[in-house]
Amino acid sequence: MNHKFIYSTIVVILLGLGSFFYLWNGARIFYPELLPAQDAATVKAPVKELPEPATKKEVIAPPPIQTAQVEEGAALTRSGIIKFTNDYRILNGLPPLKENALLRSAAEAKVKDMFQYQYFAHESPSGVNVGELVEKTGYDYLAVGENLAEGNFENDEALVKAWILSPGHRANIVNPKYTEIGVAVGQNFWNGRLTWMAVQEFAMPASLCPSPDESLKQQIEVNTIEINTWFALLEAKKAELDSLSKTQWREYNRKVEEYNNLVVEYNALIEETKVLVSAYNSQVSNFNTCVK
C-alpha cells in the first residue's frame, strides 16, 4: 500500500508540474506582451576624424637685387646662368637642376612683362605673383622660387655670385626641394637707361609626390553627410522608444527591432568611413612628408 501511495503521489505531482508549464508556455505564446523587453542597440558616434589638409604650395621670392655698376660689354646668357648655378649646387653636395621648357617660358614672360610695364618686382602691376605666373604655363608645382636681378653685371658668373651673396637668393639656389629650373635674360630700357634683367624660376614638380586621392576625400564627405542624417534619425527614434512604456512589450519590441536594424546599417557605414578616412590621412601624411 505504501508503495502504491508513493507512486500515485509522484504521478500527481508530475502531472501538476506538466500542467503548470504547459499553461505558462501557452500564456507566453498567446500573450507575447509578457515577454521581457528587448534592449536597443548601441549607436556609434559619428566620424570625427576629418581628412587632414594637404600641404599648401610653397612660394619663395626674396627681394630682387640690383647693381649700379656699369660694365662695358656686359652680357648675360641663359645657359651660362644655369651652368654657374648648378656648379654652386654641386659644390654644396646637391644634384644639378634640369632645365624645364615651361619654367623657361615663365621666366621669359617675366622679363618681357617687367620691361613692358616698367616695374621690377615679383608681383606685376596687374597682381600676378610668382605662383600664378608659373601656373599660367601649365606647370604644376609643389614648391616654386624666383630670383630677380637688374643691372649691367659683368657676366653670368658675376650675376650668380651676386645672388649667392644674398641669403634669400642663395637659399633658392641651394634649396634641396628644387629639381628643375627655367632662366631668361633680356636687355632693354628701364627707368630711362639701357640695362639687363635676369629671372630664375626654380621648382619642385607636383609629379614628385603622389597627391592624395581626391575621389576618396569626396566619398568621405558624401558618407559624412549620410552619417549625420542617419544619426539625427536614430536619435529621434531612440527618443520615441524612451517615451514608450516597457509594459507595452509587444509595441516596444517591434520598435526596438526596427531601430536595431537601422543601427546595424548605420554602424556599418561608420566603420566603412573610418577605413576611408584612415586611408586618406595616410596618403596625406605620405604626401606632406614628401613635400618636406
TrEMBL record:
Residues 84-188 form the SCP domain. It comes from Candidatus Nomurabacteria bacterium RIFCSPLOWO2_02_FULL_40_10. CDD domains: CAP_bacterial. InterPro entries: CAP_dom (IPR014044), CAP_sf (IPR035940). The keyword Membrane applies. Keywords: Membrane, Transmembrane, Transmembrane helix. This is SCP domain-containing protein. It comes from the Bacteria. The keyword Transmembrane applies. The chain crosses the membrane at residues 6-24.
